[in-house]
């Protein structure tokens, strides 16, 4: 037994060391409790939205995940030092965090730099590394320099990753925040509603300080401007998917071990521009970057009938005959954004019958960062076909309209016995047609065939009597 004791002690020590190694580093939220959090988005205060979404995010974290919470601006309206460590880093209780957030009453200012300093000092004192996630709906209001605080902390060897979630911020307010996340090896995320906040908080809590820093970055552009895009790497040989990233109109980083990878990059901003795939070879120690351009143009289409707005389906085909974009005009001009290039365009008129309801236009060039406008005007006339007895009684009958030259059936319907449908109206391309009528109901079995000529913009009426 005495011989076994040292062995048991050794096993316990190894187990404890392994458990410590697998323990994820803490996540520390810095929560905005400034007075502006009473502002509304989608009919709810930002405080309500942030509290609910943060509760869901924290609740979904692993059981062994330590979660801390710092809040600023929750006690004093004008005090730049109103910053409090509400939940310590050693905390594992998710409820403790969510309860603390729910009880917060936003009243104060936005001391971002001082809040970050408190967070960093706590890491330094406890010799702990952590993922810091700062949620703010405003910019620094206490003369601090958040970017400098983060830069200096990194230079002093403090181990952390900083993500910032800008909640309802305007474009001109993001510069210092993006600077700080870049210095903090993290990501700046935009959120403008509850769904967006939930999405970015989930992303931020998965991109932790424990994960290796990205070694391959992508910046996606469209016509010279940054565009939000998904980045999805896959090993070229094993086809194994690796963790991807999203650009959020900024630089996105992914970690690629040595090897060759096919990286799919797909724009996300309601564009018909397809994604692209790039191939990258990574060697040990490599750090690489690539810009991906989705330069495209706009094809603006419109359809008319006799010069008046008309509903139609429009499709764009590339040089391989693949449909790259489609739309329905609904009598209005519609825009389709596609890569620069040459296309074949087809129009199909709706609620119009004849042999000329489809139109094709070849070799339409769409140039990058430009709009090409085209339209097509269909032609039509009206044919009114009625069926009655000699005494004027309306007769139900089938009416089939055939193109006179080709014999092709282009339209068909029934007259019924209602004044609203007898005579039956047919909107037809100009031309000569053979009309075949067969009676139904009480007058079943009688037939008539006749020829009519439809002219553009005119109405021709023919009543058959039995």
Automatic annotation (TrEMBL):
Annotated coiled-coil segments of the chain: none
SUPFAM superfamilies, sorted: vWA-like (SSF53300)
Signal peptide: 1-19
Domain named VWFA: residues: 26-204
Keywords: Signal
Keyword Nucleotide-binding annotated: no
Keyword Signal: yes
Entry protein name: VWA domain-containing protein
């Amino acid at each position: 037994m005495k011989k076994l004791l040292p062995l048991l002690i050794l096993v316990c020590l190894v187990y404890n060391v392994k458990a410590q190694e697998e323990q994820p580093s803490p996540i520390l939220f810095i929560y905005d409790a400034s007075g502006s959090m009473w502002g509304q988005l989608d009919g709810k205060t930002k405080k309500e939205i942030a509290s609910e979404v943060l509760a869901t995010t924290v609740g979904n974290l692993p059981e062994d995940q330590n979660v801390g919470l710092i809040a600023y601006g929750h006690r004093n309206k004008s005090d730049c030092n109103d910053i409090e460590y509400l939940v310590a880093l050693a905390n594992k209780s998710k409820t403790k965090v969510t309860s603390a957030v729910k009880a917060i009453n936003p009243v104060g200012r936005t001391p971002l730099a001082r809040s970050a300093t408190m967070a960093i000092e706590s890491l330094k004192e406890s010799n702990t590394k952590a993922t810091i996630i700062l949620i703010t709906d405003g910019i620094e209001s206490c003369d601090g320099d958040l970017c400098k605080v983060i830069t200096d902390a990194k230079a002093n060897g403090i181990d952390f990753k900083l993500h910032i979630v800008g909640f309802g911020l305007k474009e001109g307010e993001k510069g210092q925040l993006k600077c700080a996340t870049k210095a903090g090896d993290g990501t700046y995320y935009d959120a403008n509603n509850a769904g967006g906040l939930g999405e970015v908080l989930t992303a931020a809590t998965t991109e932790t300080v424990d994960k290796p820093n990205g070694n391959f970055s992508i910046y996606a552009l469209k016509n010279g401007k940054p565009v939000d895009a998904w980045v999805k790497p896959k090993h070229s040989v094993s086809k194994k998917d690796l963790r991807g990233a999203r650009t959020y109109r900024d630089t996105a980083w992914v970690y690629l071990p040595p090897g060759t990878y096919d990286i799919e990059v797909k724009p996300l901003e309601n564009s018909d521009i397809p994604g692209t795939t790039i191939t990258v070879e990574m060697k040990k120690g490599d750090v690489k970057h690539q810009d991906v351009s989705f330069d495209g143009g706009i094809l603006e289409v419109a359809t008319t009938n006799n010069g008046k707005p008309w509903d139609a389906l429009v499709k764009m085909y590339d040089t391989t005959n693949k449909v790259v974009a489609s739309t329905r005009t609904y009598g209005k001009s519609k825009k389709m954004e596609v890569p620069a290039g040459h296309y074949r365009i087809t129009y199909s008129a709706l609620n119009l019958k004849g042999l000329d309801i489809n139109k094709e236009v070849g070799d339409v060039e769409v140039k990058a960062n430009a709009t090409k406008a085209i339209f097509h005007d269909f032609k039509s006339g009206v044919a009114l076909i009625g069926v009655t007895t000699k005494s004027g009684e309306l007769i139900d009958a089938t009416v089939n309209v055939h193109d006179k030259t080709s014999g092709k059936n282009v339209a068909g319907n029934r007259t019924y016995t209602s004044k609203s449908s007898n005579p039956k109206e047919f909107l037809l391309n100009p031309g000569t047609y053979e009309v075949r009528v067969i009676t139904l109901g009480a007058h079943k079995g009688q037939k008539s065939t006749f020829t009519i000529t439809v002219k553009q913009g005119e109405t021709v009426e023919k009543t058959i009597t039995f």
